[in-house]
Amino acid sequence: MDEEKRILQELASSWVSLAAEYAENAAGVTAYYIYGSSEHGASSANAYFEQDGAVVFPEDLVGADGDLIRDMQSTLLDDMSDAQAAFAEAGLAAPTEYRLEYRVEGGKLDLQLEFEQLYGPGLREKSPIEGIEYWLGDRAPKLIRGS
Known about the structure:
The chain has helices at residues 3-22, 69-89, 131-136; strands at 29-39, 42-51, 54-56, 97-103, 108-114. By secondary structure, the chain is an alpha+beta fold.
C-alpha cells in the first residue's frame, strides 16, 4: 500500500470510529457525513448524521450523549492535523478538503478529496464552516436556521 493510501485509510478509520461511538445510542442512524477543511493555517472538521432520513448536526442527534460533542470534534481536528503532518513528512500534497460518507448498513465508505485552495482571500466568497452545505446541498443542516 502506498503512503497516501495508508494515511487516508488511517484517517477514515478513525473518523468512522469516532462517529460510530458518538452515535452509539442513537436509533435510526443510517449514515455519517464528516467534513474537514484545512487551508491557510485554519482547520475545521465536524461529523453530521443521517437520522430517520434527515441529516442533522451532532447536537441534534436524538439519543446521542451531547457531552461527547467537543471531544469528538477535537479528535476529528487532531486526526486531520496528524494526517496533514504525515502527508508533509512523506513529501506528498495534502488535501485541503475531506468529504467522508459512511453508510452504516453494509459499511460503504466514500472519501472525496480536494487539493485546491477553495477558501480565503481572493478565492470563494464562502466559508469552510459551511462546507457541509456546499457538499450536501439541500440535504445538509443549515448553519443559519431558516436559510
